[in-house]
């Protein structure tokens, strides 16, 4: 199978490396060689082992032998246009581009279906963790009720460095960038946007209808400080950036926010660049997926898995897709009660509050409240008791 790679950055060069290094073993497994016919990138790579670089997308589009293109450019422009044209020309597209899948996936799946090809995106969620295919295939007997996960390697790396090594936020972010985990603009990681796209993809796939990532309530980790880390530790919890989605009242509730996890929760022990996804199926109960959520070779490994899947299933609809949803399908206000972490100053501390020695400041866990009640609870403390609410994060049940 002749493939083209579009984008020779962190992931694209990883895909090239795996296809070269494992050429023999892949050919043995699949009975066919995978040949890289073109690599599209505006930069020059004079020292690369590959000699098939081009700056012209048409070289790929017009090569009738190219069966599958790998889009690892990231962003919507020009990836969206390239993907549409490739699918329309009857070429499969494999991507790690979560932004594109989360925003234009519904349309791209339809174009792929009409042209008898597949648009595959295993690498768009959880880096190297196989989660898209298992969700569609291995859990097919179940009705999926809930998904929660640590879905961003950069922020999990930053939080781990802060919690375990007392590193500052900026120092930890630099480490994530040096390791090739962070997005070009790391605000997409830090502000929760990347996690939001990933939970939208998982929820769309698991529940069958499109969840619009731009409408998911999203909060990143910039409000998490070393003090919050200390308070949560004393309360018996760990703080993580969590994307979650569940079926609720005929629709889907989804959110992204730093949340407190009891130390016994399987997601609580997931550190550094590792991601974890917990999925609840109606028959199987909870299942966990765990692995490296970002980085060159882990992400490339998921891309190559999709290429192999296409190769082994030529002409078949692999059914990694969803359909459009109606207005009101996405619920953004949580109506299931949850406990909250409150960090406050002033007033009198409840008996179970903890302190880290900051004057007048303490933290505690509230009784279970629905989201609207939690908002009122905090407002009441400020307005009636003259207290200052410094932080309020939900506790993951
Ligand atoms: N920036 C992303 C992360 C890359 O840190 O998880 C993988 O999607």
Explain the overall architecture.
With 397 residues, the chain is of the alpha/beta class. The protein folds into three domains: 2-127 and 296-312, NAD(P)-binding Rossmann-like Domain (Rossmann fold); 133-291, Dihydrodipicolinate Reductase, domain 2, CATH 3.30.360; 340-395, no CATH class. Helix content is 35%, strand content 24%. It has helices at 10-21, 23-30, 58-61, 79-88, 98-114, 132-136, 153-165, 169-178, 187-190, 193-207, 226-235, 296-312, 371-384; strands at residues 2-6, 35-40, 53-54, 66-71, 92-95, 119-120, 144-150, 217-218, 237-248, 251-262, 274-281, 285-292, 330-331, 340-345, 361-365, 388-395. Strands 7, 8, 9, 10, 11, 12, 13, 14, 15 and 16 form a ten-stranded mixed sheet that branches. Strand 9 (237-248) and strand 10 (251-262) form a beta hairpin. The radius of gyration is 23 Å and the shape is elongated. The mean pLDDT is 97.
List keywords for this structure.
Rossmann fold; 397 residues; 6-stranded parallel sheet; alpha/beta; 3 domains; 10-stranded mixed sheet; Dihydrodipicolinate Reductase, domain 2; binds L-homoserine; elongated; single chain; 16 strands
CA radius of gyration is 23 Å
Overall strand count: 16
Largest sheet: 10 strands, mixed
Name the CATH superfamily assignment of the largest domain.
Dihydrodipicolinate Reductase, domain 2
| Form type | elongated
Could you list the spans in which at least 5 consecutive residues all have pLDDT below 50? Answer: none
Helix content: 25-40%
Question: Helices and strands, in N-to-C order?
Answer: EHHEEHEHEHEHEHHHHEHEEEEHEEEHE
Bound molecules: L-homoserine
Question: Strand-residue fraction?
Answer: 15-25%
What structural class do the secondary elements suggest?
A: alpha/beta
Discrete helix count:
13
- Determine the mean pLDDT: 97
Distance between the termini: 47 Å
CATH class term of the largest domain: Alpha Beta
CATH topology of the largest domain: Dihydrodipicolinate Reductase, domain 2
